[in-house]
Amino acid sequence: MSIEAIAPLAAATGLGPLAATGTDAPAGTGGGDFGAMVAQGLQKLQQVQNTADDLAVDAAAGRLTDVHDYMIAATEASLATSLTVAVRNKALDAFNEIMRMQA
């Protein structure tokens, strides 16, 4: 088993500014659709969760040779979920603030 560098959380979860566009355009310059970015981030979160679940089943069945693989996947899934919830909360706060603005 080789050791790989750990990518930043934004890149690992697919929620980074360049994730949806695949271009070098920074976020906010019209390089991508916000809805597409959110959908892609949620798909990546689902993949991370599925990987952690599969490794948990393998560990319970005794097929997992390296327990640290499961621990890394479970921690990554937990962090990705926390990041997704934080982004959702900030989006809801922004929406509520816009709704409170007077015309």
Features:
103 residues; mainly alpha; 65% helix
User: Which stretches are poorly predicted, pLDDT < 50 over at least 5 residues?
Assistant: 17-23
Count of helix runs: 3
Distance between the termini: 60 Å
Overall pLDDT metric:
81
- How does the major sheet shape up? none
Helix content range: 55-70%
- How much of the polypeptide forms β-strand, as a percent range? under 5%
Name the shape in a single word: elongated
Radius of gyration over C-alpha positions, nearest whole angstrom: 17 Å
Tell me the structural class: mainly alpha
| Number of strand segments | 0
**Helix and strand succession?**
HHH
Verbal overview:
The protein is 65% helix and 0% strand. It is elongated, with a radius of gyration of 17 Å. It has three helices and no strands. Helix 2 (34-61) runs antiparallel to helix 3 (67-100). It has 103 residues and is mainly alpha-helical. The model is unreliable at 17-23 (pLDDT under 50). It has a domain at 34-100. The protein starts with 8 loop residues before the first helix and ends with a helix. It has helices at 9-13, 34-61, 67-100.
